[in-house]
Amino acid sequence: MSHSTVLDRLAQSIEARKHGDAETSYVAKLLQSGQDKILKKIAEESAETLMASKDGDVHQVVYETADLWFHCMILLAHHNLSPDDVFKELERREGVSGITEKKSRIT
């Protein structure tokens, strides 16, 4: 099974719930709460991922990373973006040194 397919299905599910009932859908509630709430959740999940790593709990690292990715997917949906947009950027960077890529960014 392609992992990108899992992300595509997740993106489709998020998109389907985007304008749903906030009383019954966490995704709808978060999206309808606005960007600040989404960003707060990403910060929270990032911190939990960092702490799991610091604690050396690999199972919790996977669990928290899944939560982080999920909330990042919600942020993408908020901006009407998809995993494909991120994949395209990763493909653009493929084979390019991270140092070279960073130097090429316009600041």
Question: What would you say about this model in short?
Answer:
By secondary structure, this protein is mainly α.
Please explain how this structure is put together.
- This protein has 107 residues and is mostly helical.
- The protein has a single domain, classed as MazG-like (Helix Hairpins).
- It contains 6 helices and no strands.
- It has helices at residues 3-17, 26-33, 35-55, 58-78, 83-93, 98-104.
- Helix 1 packs across helix 4.
- The relative contact order is 0.12.
CATH topological fold name: Helix Hairpins
Unreliable residue runs: none
Order of helices and strands: HHHHHH
Number of domains: 1
Helix content: over 70%
Could you describe the largest sheet, including whether it forms a barrel? none
CATH H level, superfamily name:
MazG-like
End-to-end Cα distance: 39 Å
Instruction: Average the pLDDT over all residues and give the rounded result.
Output: 91
CATH class bucket: Mainly Alpha
Output the number of helix runs: 6
Give me the secondary-structure category: mainly alpha
CATH architecture grouping: Orthogonal Bundle
Beta-strand content: under 5%
* Computed CA radius of gyration, to the nearest angstrom: 16 Å
**Silhouette:** globular
How many strand segments? 0
Oligomer: single chain
Task: Please outline the helices and strands.
Blueprint: H1 3-17, H2 26-33, H3 35-55, H4 58-78, H5 83-93, H6 98-104
Helix pairs in contact: 1-4, 3-4
